[in-house]
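INPUT
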Amino acid sequence: MPASDLSLSDLPPSDRSAPELPDHAIQAHGLDKVYAPSGGQPAMHALKAVDLEVPRGSLFGLLGPNGAGKSTFINILAGLVIKTGGQASIWGRDIDAEPRNARAAIGVVPQELNIDPFFTPRELLEVQAGMYGVPQAARRTDEILAAVGLADRAGAYARTLSGGMRRRLLVAKAMVHNPPVLILDEPTAGVDIELRQNLWAHVRKLNAAGTTVVLTTHYLEEAEELCDRIAIINHGQVIACDTTERLVRRLDRKELRITLAEAIAAVPPPLTAFAAELDRDGRLIVGYHTGQTDIGAILAAVSDAGLTIRDLTTEEPDLEDIFLELTRAAPTPRPAPPPTVRRAG
Ligand code: ADP
Ligand code: MG
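OUTPUT
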């Protein structure tokens, strides 16, 4: 096997089922990044003491608005940005102590579609395999191209590929050395809906086969649809990190709007327990969490107060609104780390 800086021999696929697998595909502690001032721009504190753990085997969403620090986080892991402070490891390998082994454990699909226009997909993958020291016999160029739906474009110049095809080619490139961790930075930028579904199907398949996947997005719905865990990052700080189910439940707040037959000046006592409010039109507004609040009890309280319901609606706030609300709020203490997600098989 040829010696190489980024030798695959450090990470044979069989190693992934070895007994001493790391519990966490990625771990970051106190990760900090300050971009130095340049070109009249002041210094930018892009990451502020970020603690984050990505359990092995998860499909993890790093969610946050533009400028939150998502790419900075990814690029530090990829060795493209030098951190200012803190510690990070990938597949149990510290990025300072074992930079090459750490990098060999991840494949990164960058946010920018930076592809040499005069390479064909097949050439690009071969060059990448060479860079990672993947021996000829272990190369899976055609298999990978087929997996991302580019088999019939294997010999076409990259400049002739559409945006969606380029995105998929970058996914293929990131998979060449068969890394246990795949990171996709804003993978749906410039990808149409149909191709997005294909891309997601492929990502799900990789994850089901054991690859830990981290993707960044500024769409809550995208993270919700795809990820089993979500961390929300804003202004360089992680403001929430939980299973998708728990996070969505936390965000799953609805409003009951009750129009009364009677005009009232204040919320009557039986309803204060539900933190009811009166809106400008004299309607009773009661916020509740689906599955947690007994709507019947709210309605009973209305009639206990001697009031008559004339009309009733429920409002579901836009998930995007709630997300913005959450990212505007002060950082909350993070919950205890969850149980590790075990890889199937
Ligand atoms: P996201 O990927 O979440 O949109 P980024 O990590 O790209 O966020 O950016 C976080 C912040 O750091 C932004 O304010 C951005 O302008 C700034 N930033 C990113 N890269 C650089 C850089 N190379 N030099 C200076 N500032 C940067
Ligand atoms: Mg980004």
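end of record. The mean pLDDT is 85.
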